[in-house]
Design goal:
39% helix; alpha/beta; binds zinc ion; 12 strands
């Protein structure tokens, strides 16, 4: 087989195999690869800009897809480029997406396997450490997220979730039509949602938001009023009821203390009843409270 055939089987656009080594016992294949003659377009790995100035940059070794039963390693000649913006940088090579020793398509195979199996299983299948598989999967998903077209944000959801004592709250912005979370911010202050509008959306995108579903947290509505004033605000039913219940509880408590003297005697020793939601009380307990709270209990 000639080097030319190896190049065809390898199938890295713009690159050719100039040397190879097969170890039948270890079941490994090593391929030495360099740019094809005439392939002299260099891009900066920092910014993607096309660069004319380059020099040798040595070799990089990555694991690629297996050839039959042979575990395959590709040794690639790479260049350094002088970018007007970034200075001296390593060139951008499509099959070398990160500093990790794997080709892009190898990482894609691992990432795809992770969609249908646990990391530990994938690790066994490819002969990798669990942690390596998880790192590959994360890069795979990041590239997928960067490359896909994102649906326009027209119906926006903003919510806060409690994540524990240390971080406390996260602000979560989601696309309600697509049903996917878009962004997470630490805390639930107005500035947090401001940051989403400032860093994630251009002015035109902000104008296209038609409605936002939020809980009744003022910081969020303030931010939306400021950055997407045309957007209608929808309060979700769960939060409206939550606030209504709190208001009713509050009224019930103040009524009780306003009645004073005689009425309070009725529920002496039953203070906990007042702090329980009315709907959660059984009939007997409701009867206990009714004499002193006729207007609320009705
Ligand atoms: Zn650059």
């Amino acid at each position: 087989m000639r080097d030319h055939d190896f190049t065809k089987i390898l199938g890295w656009p713009g690159y050719r195999v100039y040397q190879y080594e097969i170890n039948e016992e270890a079941k490994t294949l090593r391929l030495w690869v360099r740019r094809k003659r005439g392939n002299r377009k260099f891009e900066c790995s920092g910014c993607g800009r096309q660069v004319a100035d380059y020099q040798d940059g040595g070799e990089r070794e990555v694991r690629d897809l297996p050839w039959g039963e042979l575990r395959t390693t590709v040794v690639v000649e790479i260049y350094r480029v002088r970018c007007p913006d970034c200075g001296w940088k390593v060139e951008k090579v499509p099959q070398l997406p990160s500093k990790a020793p794997f080709s892009k398509r190898f990482e894609e195979a691992v990432g795809l396997a992770c969609e249908g199996a646990a990391a530990r299983q994938v690790a066994r299948q490819f002969g990798l450490a669990d942690s390596t598989v998880r790192a590959i999967d994360q890069r795979y998903l990041e590239r997928w997220a960067a490359e896909r077209r994102k649906p326009a944000l027209k119906q926006m959801g903003v919510d806060e979730i409690y994540v524990g004592k240390k971080t406390k709250f996260l602000t979560v912005v989601s696309n309600l039509e697509a049903g996917e979370p878009l962004w997470f911010g630490e805390g639930r202050k107005q500035e947090v949602l401001d940051e989403f509008f400032q860093t994630q959306l251009r002015a035109g995108q902000r104008r296209r938001i038609e409605a936002a579903c939020v809980d009744m947290w003022e910081a969020f509505t303030n931010s939306i009023h400021q950055y997407a004033p045309q957007c209608r605000i929808v309060y979700d039913k769960f939060h409206v009821l939550q606030h209504a219940n709190q208001a009713i509880d509050e009224v019930r408590r103040t009524e009780f203390f306003r009645k004073g003297g005689r009425a309070r005697e009725v529920v002496k020793g039953k203070r906990w009843l007042l702090l329980t939601r009315w709907v959660n009380l059984d009939t007997g307990k409701k009867d206990n409270l009714t004499p002193c709270l006729p207007s609320i209990a009705a």
